[in-house]
Fold:
Amino acid sequence: MDKATFMKILASDSRDYSNRPLLVNSVMKNKSWVLILLNKINDIENKDSSFSARILELSCKNDLSLLLPYLDTFVDIIAKLKLDASIRASAKIIELLTIQYFIQKEELYIKNMTNSHLELFTEYCFDWMINEKAIAIQAHSMYALYLIGRKYNWVHPALITLIERNLPSGSAGYKNRGKKVIYAIRTNTNYRL
Structure:
């Protein structure tokens, strides 16, 4: 697929599922096209930006390292997001990044993810949980914060307090993950998805 066709499909009104693999494969072959996706996501008022966020998420699931050259741009953009679908995709990407950093301990991610990135991820994830975003956003945020808490001691107590506050009104999925995260923190055991 050429760049013009890639951009045309991203901009089309069609959110046909059959286009997703085609777009993701194109990003895998042309890794600099991540910047195209980021530019589309940055159009935060446009409902179509969420489709680009989803394509970025799916591309990152295939090869997360493709985001690393654009990590600063990604971090700047997610601070401005308003649409839940874009936030959900971004929360999943943050979760993937923290897994590589804290669980896989991949040197590539440890070298490229700065304390500033981790602090901003912490801020965004707490904000999404406090503002009671959709359950998927909170679940990804909760796990990312659990992992980030391995580096920043203050995160775990704040996370426990927030989860316990939201447990009574949370969904079954929220309660399930929340209880597991709290148990892992309190018993100092590993919790893996």
User: Anything to note?
Assistant: The domain at 3-187 is CATH 1.25.10 (Leucine-rich Repeat Variant). The radius of gyration is 17 Å.
